[in-house]
Amino acid sequence: MDLLLLEKTLLGLFLSVVLAIAISKLRGKRFKLPPGPLPVPIFGNWLQVGDDLNHRNLTDLAKKFGDIFLLRMGQRNLVVVSSPELAKEVLHTQGVEFGSRTRNVVFDIFTGKGQDMVFTVYGEHWRKMRRIMTVPFFTNKNLRLLESKLANTKSTTNEGLKCAIDHILDAQQKGEINEDNVLYIVENINVAAIETTLWSIEWGIAELVNHPEIQRKLRNELDTVLGPGVPITEPDTQKLPYLQAVVKETLRLRMTIPLLVPHMNLHDAKLAGYDIPAESKILVNAWWLANNPANWKNPEEFRPERFLEEESKVEANGNDFKYLPFGAGRRSCPGIILALPILGITIGRLVQNFELLPPPGQSKLDTSEKGGQFSLHILKHSTIVVKPRVF
Ligand code: HEM
């Protein structure tokens, strides 16, 4: 009796494997899919590539399979693009087609099935949320308030934030969004705004500690342009090209969202002559675009001068598709307008007032990175010496 059951189970298993192979063969015939490692039925490429899809592993795969390749992660297609041309196609030229976001059970829980903004599909809800979320943050008035808040370390008022929250609550009262949407906006800001900015500041400090000559040059610029001890404020950042270059170089070498936030095509699409089945997850390997020696001179070096010399036309706003720390196009980061001044002011203030040094007995900080699919941050937090300057 038991043997019969075993026989039936084995037969059932065999038939499902044959069926899965037949289906994947049929699919393969219908679509001209991008190249990639050969998937096995049911598991796809899980067993070959594992689940550590960080920017470096994906770069190795791009070197093997090309600027566009496909991984089958279980039932989901994952398409990875690794050239400025293809990044432009995904983010700009076909920005609507590839402008949605993937979802899974975990995101559904955190976003109430896409009621937020960062992870919602491209459409009316996203448009509304983006407008409500970005308008209050990015009016000039609020930037000035934020600046004055940062300038007077005795925290003035929380007015900037209050205005923003008021605006969002107004939208709720007018019935444009519901209470859940408000909560998800706040949650999005927590994730998208605070962590990314903090990680970038930490990377910037670490690089300045490890490159004392760059730190000196930056301090010299601040002292010369503003006068020793005159605290930097937001409008000053425009007059400080070396400070801007330090910020850009930090965001290039230590890109905190190295694969952008995954994009998705709602419908079947075409990319680089290949078919991209509907609901594929699309990753843009922005870290590799900004660290590929084919595009940059000695990219592994922390050298802010590159942004004043050979790359002087490259901005952080996505004007050049080899440098996309904030993405580009419709789903690009609306927070860039806050993040850049915050980084400039924070790093500027520190360097104006202190010498940033490694701990005694240590010549360099450990800048090993911890990279995942969504983030790139420093592996070990270090303690540094902060030596006040005497003016
Ligand atoms: C150094 C700081 C920051 C970095 C490096 C950064 C980077 C990014 C990147 C790479 C994306 C995804 C772009 C794409 O998928 O194509 C993104 C999206 C987003 N960021 Fe930022 N960000 C930063 C700070 C902020 C701040 C301060 C805010 C808000 C105040 C913010 C709000 C958002 C939102 C709402 C999205 C989703 C946009 C959408 O899906 O339409 N970010 N950010």
UniProtKB/TrEMBL annotation:
Q: What molecular function does GO assign, one term? A: heme binding
How does the entry describe its membrane topology?
Single-pass membrane protein
Main function: Catalyzes the first oxidative step of the phenylpropanoid pathway in higher plants by transforming trans-cinnamate into p-coumarate. The compounds formed by this pathway are essential components for lignification, pollination, and defense against ultraviolet light, predators and pathogens.
Keywords of this entry: Heme, Iron, Membrane, Metal-binding, Monooxygenase, Oxidoreductase, Transmembrane, Transmembrane helix
Report what the protein is called.
Trans-cinnamate 4-monooxygenase
- What enzyme class is recorded for this protein? oxidoreductase
Question: GO cellular component annotations, sorted alphabetically?
Answer: membrane
Q: Where in the cell is it found?
A: Membrane
State any GO BP term from the record: lignin metabolic process
The protein's required cofactor(s) are namely: heme
Which residues fall in a coiled-coil region? none
What reaction does this catalyse? (E)-cinnamate + reduced [NADPH--hemoprotein reductase] + O2 = (E)-4-coumarate + oxidized [NADPH--hemoprotein reductase] + H2O + H(+)
Q: Where does heme bind?
A: 333
SUPFAM superfamilies tied to this protein: Cytochrome P450
Any idea of its EC number?
A: 1.14.14.91
Pathway as given in its UniProt record: Phenylpropanoid metabolism; trans-4-coumarate biosynthesis; trans-4-coumarate from trans-cinnamate: step 1/1
Q: Which family does it belong to?
A: Belongs to the cytochrome P450 family.
